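Give me structure tokens for this 192-residue protein.
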Amino acid sequence: MIGKNQLPKINGQKQVAKSRLFAIEQLELTFSNGAERLYERMMGSGNGAVMIVPMLDADTLLLVREYCAGTHSYELGFPKGLVDPGEMPEQAANRELQEEISYGSKQLQFLSRVMMAPAFFNAKMDIFIASDLYTSKLEGDEPEPLEVVSWPIKEYKTLLQQPDFQEARSIAALMLLVDHLFPSNLANQDGA
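Here you go.
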């Protein structure tokens, strides 16, 4: 079938703005039906990003409370950061753990990949579960020490109701973790 799931042709692309964190690119597109449009997209880190769900033990999650400039507030979420050039996502995840919560992990398990606003932003984030934690601190780029908060995994519904736990990627990571750890529990809640 013509036009179904056919990517538009890129006739031109140029960078129209750049900051320290992002670049904005303009795309001149022609769709399969002949429609022409200009789209803009933010270009993220080419190496991607990671988010880590640290498990202190089988029953306890670790989160961080940190300043978020976008909302000018302190938010509770999971440790996260960019993948540095030449670094594998697993290495970035273990480094970020050591920088943000002063733990390393002997066991990192890939949980999922999420995309952030793919209509406008080409950024991907790999989510890992970190277990078998050990004490290890690396110097990070945070301007102040992050507050580390432990949370019982069985109380995840209470966490979802916290006014400072609003970051969509952290919510997605939590729900993916719950589904991973308790798959029959979610099925039973849906009446299956």
